[in-house]
Design goal:
The structure is a homodimer. By secondary structure, chain A is an alpha+beta fold. The first copy, chain A, has helices at about 20-25, 50-65, 80-85, 90-100, 120-125, 135-140, 160-165, 210-215, 240; strands at about 105-110, 110-115, 145-155, 170-180, 185-195, 220-235, 250-260, 265-275, 280-285. The first copy, chain A, folds into two domains: about 20-125, Orthogonal Bundle (Arc Repressor Mutant, subunit A), CATH 1.10.10.10; about 135-275, Chorismate lyase-like (Chorismate lyase, 3-Layer(aba) Sandwich), CATH 3.40.1410.10. Chain A has a six-stranded antiparallel beta sheet. In chain A, strands 1-2 form a two-stranded antiparallel ribbon. Chain A starts with 19 loop residues before the first helix and ends in a 10-residue tail after the last strand. At the A-B interface, strand 6, strand 7 and strand 9 of A face strand 6, strand 7 and strand 9 of B. Strand 9 of chain A pairs antiparallel with strand 6 (about 220-235) of chain B, so a sheet runs across the interface. The first copy, chain A, binds a DNA duplex through helix 4. Chains A, B: One of its GO terms (molecular function) is DNA-binding transcription factor activity. Chains A, B: Keywords: DNA-binding, Transcription, Transcription regulation. Chains A, B: InterPro entries: Bact_HTH_transcr_reg, Chorismate_lyase_/UTRA_dom_sf, Tscrpt_reg_HTH_GntR, UTRA, WH-like_DNA-bd_sf, WH_DNA-bd_sf. Chains A, B: It holds the Pfam family GntR.
Chain lengths: ~290, ~290
DNA sequence: AAGTGGTCTAGACCACCCC
DNA sequence: GGGTGGTCTAGACCACTTA
């Protein structure tokens, strides 16, 4: 009568009264309000504000993280999972798709779903997007800090206007900072945002605040960052800020960050001290189905 | 979703059905052509080997590329598109999701679907993953070429073994190349692949062949590339290969490429001449739903 | 209140893998 | 053949936006 969740953790799903682990994994899922006679249905419930497919994905993810599902293991068939989780197959597949995107699962057509090694600790160490300065600092347990060189609005020059798709002369908020970790200068960050997009910018103290966070709080949905990365010799102007000899290598990262409608929001040029910083990211490739001949 | 190629595989996709005529079915949004004459039903046909949702996505994409749908424009409501394309709403939404991931569309809950400026020419110039050497060459209309310095199998050292999660001493195929564009040296590429994963490697002529393509042809499904990028001074050994003075800046790109099960397949270290190369990529950020209080 | 996207379902058929 | 994932449908309800 009790439906089991996978192999090792039969207790999590279908058991009404104990069932604490799943409840927490999924969300509120208040069990007290349970109908009392429908144990299996208690697995995932509509009480939670999260969509079912997110909940389902979380349940499976937590099983993996917990170690109940080892890499290489096969998952139960989709139709069986549907029964256990009490959701439709379409919904389950949406949950599985999410986990594929996160690198936690992979499927083979006639064979089944398999746990794929990554997706847990590895995933967190290799972000799918560029690790931000603040994130790096946190990972290395260093204290991030900024020295503000300029934080003021000025009319946009021709070049800046073109870069951000705005009219020349439009008020542009400039933020130039030296970024430090534990008081060691790591990079020079030269950013510009059209003032109209976040009028409160001049009032923020950027010695500690994160520009990215301020923009998100302003309701901007930053979705894409077109980037170029190159290696250069540091020039006499920048060298003292980074405490480098002129001619030493620096890493140049230039980004134009766009919102969901493709509108440029932020232009940023970061000059990292070559010897003190290293960009980290993980590129993924969607599984393709391009058979050359069927 | 974001997210997709990191190798020289841009041209692999087998486009069999050109399907140009269908295009009008979507763009014209002609309300008068109701159920009366049934022209819309001919829009997508099951004769094609491609799934319907791919076909639908291609139709919309071609409308955007063609300019029939300008950035900022609103698409017809989903239910109407379904009727025009003669597919179910679930299928249509899968097609739309693909276009969102490509950055061509975006949706707002109660408002509708909007064309988002990017996704056409821009998209092609800003790949979601690192532009490969071959792709860069093609974009710049230069001729790529390699000088092979080493192409041989050797037992894996301790470091190599750890990097690739194999036993020390396992046969490892080493491929060291100088990569050139129009006969100008651009980079040194030092790669290593466990021989067992592609036993034919030693027989390939890498003066012209692409290592990625060979691995794909061997049936390996390369899915993820954990990467670090840094800036260094070129050392006396590498300098002559790149025709640089010792101490000049180079860009160091190190990647460990994994297959779908998370197994490391390829380790590659590329040293780009700082003055002659610039990495290009477009990072995407998943829309997040981290409200602190619901 | 009407329009629109977001979620979910139950059931169907097909294509692939392995016995 | 039987099991399994991949695709597709028609219809339903909910949540958000706009009026």
């Amino acid at each position: 009568m009790v439906h089991k969740w996978f192999s090792a953790t039969g207790e999590v799903i279908g058991v009404r009264s104990p069932a604490p682990s799943i409840a927490t994994a999924v969300g509120t899922a208040d069990p007290s309000s349970g109908p009392g006679t429908e144990p299996a249905a208690a697995a995932l419930l509509t009480a939670s504000p999260e969509p079912l497919w997110i909940q389902a994905s979380n349940v499976i993810r937590s099983e993996i993280d917990k170690g109940a599902l080892q890499p290489g293991t096969r998952l139960p068939p989709e139709r069986e999972l549907c029964a256990q989780l009490n959701i439709s197959r379409v919904t389950l597949r949406k949950a599985l798709a999410k986990l594929v995107e996160e690198g936690a699962l992979s499927a083979t057509h006639g064979r089944g779903w398999y746990i794929s090694g990554a997706g847990t600790a590895t995933e967190r160490e290799w972000p799918h997007t560029l690790e931000s300065f603040t994130e790096t600092a946190r990972r290395m347990r260093l204290v991030p800090h900024s020295r503000v060189l300029r934080a003021a609005a000025q009319p946009a020059s021709l070049d800046e206007a073109e870069l951000l798709s705005i009219a020349p002369g439009t008020p542009l908020f400039h933020l130039d900072r030296v970024r430090l970790l534990d008081d060691v200068p790591i990079a020079i960050d030269i950013s510009a945002v059209p003032l109209a997009m976040a009028p409160d910018l001049p009032a923020v103290d950027f010695e500690t605040a994160s520009l990215y966070q301020v923009l998100l709080d302003a309701g901007l949905n930053l979705v894409r960052a077109d980037s170029t990365i190159e290696s250069r010799e540091v020039d006499p102007v920048d060298a003292p800020y980074l405490d480098l000899d002129v001619g030493k290598p620096i890493l140049l990262l230039h980004q134009v960050v766009l919102d969901e409608s493709g509108r440029p929001v932020l232009s940023s040029l970061v000059k990292y001290s070559g010897a003190r910083y290293r960009l980290r990211t993980s590129f993924t490739r969607q599984p393709r189905f391009d058979r050359t001949a069927p």
